[in-house]
Amino acid sequence: MSPSATDSESLDGRLLFAIPKKGRLHDKCLELLAGSDIQFRRSHRLDVALVKNLPIALVFLPASDIPSFVGKGNVNLGITGHDVILEANMENEVAEVLRLGFGKCALQVQVPESSPFKSAEDLAGKRVVTSFEVLAGKHFGEIDSRLQLTGDAATKIEYVGGSVEAACALGLADGIVDLVGKYKSGDTMRAAGLHAIATILETEAVLIKHTVEKNAAFEPLIQTITSRIAGVVAAGKYVVCEYNIPREKVHDATAITPGRRAPTISPLEDDKWVAVSAMVEKKNMATIMDNLVKIGAEDILIFNLDNCRV
Ligand SMILES: Nc1ncnc2c1ncn2[C@@H]1O[C@H](COP(=O)(O)OP(=O)(O)OP(=O)(O)O)[C@@H](O)[C@H]1O
Ligand SMILES: O=P(O)(O)OC[C@H]1O[C@H](OP(=O)(O)OP(=O)(O)O)[C@H](O)[C@@H]1O
Fold this sequence. Notes:
The protein has 310 residues and is of the alpha/beta class. The protein folds into three domains: 8-102 and 205-211, Periplasmic binding protein-like II (D-Maltodextrin-Binding Protein, domain 2, 3-Layer(aba) Sandwich); 105-203, Periplasmic binding protein-like II (D-Maltodextrin-Binding Protein, domain 2, 3-Layer(aba) Sandwich), CATH 3.40.190; 238-304, 2-Layer Sandwich (Alpha-Beta Plaits). 26% of the residues lie in helices and 30% in strands. The chain has helices at residues 26-35, 66-71, 82-87, 120-123, 133-146, 187-191, 219-237, 250-256, 285-294, and strands spanning 15-20, 48-50, 56-61, 77-81, 94-99, 105-112, 127-130, 156-159, 175-181, 194-203, 205-210, 238-246, 264-267, 273-281, 298-304. The strands form three sheets. The protein has a six-stranded mixed sheet. Strand 2 (48-50) and strand 3 form a beta hairpin. Pfam families: HisG, HisG_C.
């Protein structure tokens, strides 16, 4: 009989890799796994999936539980938000191996547009609702102690599991602490008639590993997985830019497209011209092309990368 993911013996010798089972990070994690050629089939409703081509088992968990699973060594590796690591107080138990460039958002203090409170200090002593009671508690704890607000005068932090943005309209809170997406950011906040008055933390998804020796035997496999995932992340971040430029402009061209180490410069049949090839950050692509045109570059081409190791 072939091993099943529910058969705990089949997990022996496998590195356990925790993946968010739903929510904002889930789909991006599946893209990373596919790009890293980590092949698996997850049976309906099962939260453990054996990887077919590597000695790994994927464990699908809520993003907020992953820091403590990794921190306590129940799983070896995981992907989650930097914010939830701090919220779980696991920053000393897990090592952040790689930033993944998605799940970018900010944990912000928000109040109704019409609120008289203009800063987190104004809100101190009032009612604050959040899913991040540790981080919000630390933030307002510091303000309270600075403003000497103690006992009944201290800020009242109340936990809710979701839909935090509704708390002010429902009369439960004077302000909230919640995440605001970095791209197309603030839709939820604006729809709820709120605006941000302070930022507690900027965060993105990270690859994390257990810090203690429990991982020693898996270290070579962790290196392989990290290198593959880093390749997928870099391939999403960079494009290759190729163009022709008069030879006397090579110096200017190199300043515009320095590449990661140096641009590749190749001769053309016309010896007054050279071809240049360099990796550039996707987000700067349009400006770089504008600047190349200005110095006389021609035939500028941009190529997406499927994968890379840089
Ligand atoms: N709007 C957003 N834009 C980008 N990243 C986000 C956003 N909201 C949350 N994240 C990131 O995704 C992580 C998981 O958030 P998400 O709301 O998906 O949680 P979840 O595990 O689905 O929880 P829930 O049980 O509340 O649905 C957050 O900790 C944060 O790092
Ligand atoms: O700035 P935006 O892109 O609008 O995203 C922000 C919202 O996303 C998250 O909640 P999510 O939608 O995951 O659901 P939740 O309220 O159940 O946590 C977060 O808690 C905000 O409410």
